[in-house]
Write a structure and sequence with these properties.
The structure is a single chain. By secondary structure, this protein is α/β, with parallel strands linked by helices. The protein has a single domain (about 1-250), classed as Vaccinia Virus protein VP39 (Rossmann fold, 3-Layer(aba) Sandwich), CATH 3.40.50.150. It is about 30% helix and about 25% strand. It has nine helices and eleven strands. It has helices spanning about 35-45, 65-70, 85-95, 110-115, 140-150, 170-180, 190-195, 210-220, 230-240, and strands at about 1-5, 10-15, 15-20, 55, 75-80, 100-105, 120-125, 150-165, 185-190, 200-205, 225-230. The protein has an eight-stranded mixed sheet, sandwiched between helices. Helix 5 links the parallel strand 7 (about 120-125) and strand 8 (about 150-165). Helix 1 runs parallel beside helix 2 (about 65-70), helix 1 packs antiparallel against helix 8 (about 210-220) and helix 5 (about 140-150) crosses helix 6. The longest helix has 13 residues, at about 170-180.
């Protein structure tokens, strides 16, 4: 069950695992490194302050939508969250300010996306976890094609994923999106990329040139620096992996004990 605790900001946990951290007084305060990397993507998606049409698949405590609303006033944001208890808890304890442009939908992310108009979003963010695993319906080539359909020309997809060596899940997701998009990149800490530990990685895809230089500078300057992989290095990581159809898709692997718990 979801729960929130006050400790400076608000920490949302689900079954004991931290999911979101929100500072209602400072939406620019991003506690978790993977959220900072997703925020870097939003920062590089358009000129500073320019409003965007954003789709967030997975809501949590709405940390990233709050960040976008503060930094890009006038943005229209659709947030899709399946967990009705979580939606009720966040709406009751951590409501978004009036006029934020954030619309919250209680729905299955894949089903909602399939009903969304074509070419209606500038950015789609995928951050959906069932417990600590990405659901299978968001891990297929058909899903990647739906994302491509909903994005406008030049639009950007960013997904928070989790895996560890030998990266069977991550490599398959990269293969899915390589089939649907021209531009592809991956953001992760070096220790994760080298297979030393299980962790988060942010997948990026677009039909236009990705802002790799700007992203690399921002990610390198974080407290826990991350690397942006693309081109030949990313092709080597993908290796012989091929796209996965809906009928064969599986959720991301369960994390090792303690990988995503607070210490």
């Amino acid at each position: 069950m979801p729960d929130v605790d006050r400790d400076g900001g608000w920490l949302l946990t689900v079954d004991g695992a931290p999911q979101s951290y929100v500072d209602l007084d400072d939406p620019g305060h991003l506690e978790f490194e993977y959220v900072r990397r997703l925020a870097h993507v939003l920062d590089c998606a358009a000129d500073p302050g320019e409003p965007l049409d954003l789709v967030h698949l997975g809501g949590g405590a709405l940390t990233l939508p709050r960040y976008a609303a503060a930094g890009r006033p006038g943005s229209r944001q659709q947030v899709v969250e399946f967990d009705a208890d979580l939606v009720e808890l966040v709406s009751g304890h951590l409501p978004v300010p009036a006029g934020s442009g954030i619309t919250l939908h209680t729905a299955d992310a894949r089903a909602w996306l399939e009903q969304a108009p074509a070419a209606s979003a500038d950015v789609v963010v995928g951050d959906v976890f069932g417990g600590s695993r990405v659901p299978a319906q968001l891990a297929s080539a058909e899903y990647a094609r739906e994302v491509a359909r909903v994005l406008r020309p030049g639009g950007l997809y960013a997904a928070n994923l989790a895996d560890g060596a030998p990266f069977g899940f991550l490599r398959a997701q990269l293969a899915n999106f390589r089939e649907a998009f021209d531009g592809l990149a991956l953001i992760a800490e070096p220790a994760v990329l080298r297979g030393r530990r299980f962790g988060n990685a942010v997948l990026l895809a677009s039909d236009a040139e990705l802002p790799l230089a700007a992203l690399s500078r921002r990610c390198a300057g974080d407290a826990f620096p991350a690397r942006v992989e693309s081109g030949p290095a990313l092709a080597r990581l993908i290796g012989s992996a091929t796209p996965v159809a809906d009928r064969d898709a599986a959720p991301s692997p369960p994390p090792p004990s303690g990988a995503f718990t607070l210490t």
